Amino acid sequence: MATMNVNPTRMELKRLKNRLTTARRGHKLLKDKRDELMKRFLDIIRENKELRAEVEREISEANRGFAVAGAVMSPEMMEQSLMCPTKSVELDISYKNIMSVDVPEFSFSASDGKSVYPYGYAMTSGELDDAVDGLARLLPKLLRLAEVEKSAQLLAQEIEKTRRRVNALEYVMIPQLAETIRMITMKLDENERGNLTRLMKVKDMMIKEQLQKNK
Predict the structure, then answer these.
(1) CA distance 55 to 61
(2) Residue 40's closest CA among 96, 92, 87, 2?
(3) Whole-angstrom Cα distance, residue 136 to residue 148?
(4) What is the pTM of this model?
């Protein structure tokens, strides 16, 4: 592991030790965040799987209803029957925070209409009624499915970002800091031993000089 290009001083050593402590603390926090994100992500994925299967089943039933209605009604009558809706829907979007990730929450409000069916009953089939009613009941589930899938996408992006940060700390920064600290410590110890050796030599020379003067 390559070391950092720093001056081997005690002040630098202290600064790097503080950085190493901070990096290890940050590494632990990021690992905990990654694990919690994965837990939330898996819960959302399970809900998404169940909800998507349910939505697809109900959409298939509605499509079958439209197909049967189209077989007993003329295309012009089908188009005319569904041309003018009786209700309007307003979508509201808010956000909630999951582990520093803002995920959307969808809600809707429908205007008060006399009936969900935008047509009279005289010239239409019962299958068309069932299909329209099924789609009307499906709207909340569709919004929830969109909310869940968007949340899963945002959480997956955050998990990947957190994973890269954890790996950068674990395999690059922390080993590099530790190696640089070891290098500086060895350098300082070597300098200290050199200074001690010089002091001992100076002391020996002073003692020898004093002994020669006393002769």
Answers:
(1) 10
(2) 96
(3) 20
(4) 0.75
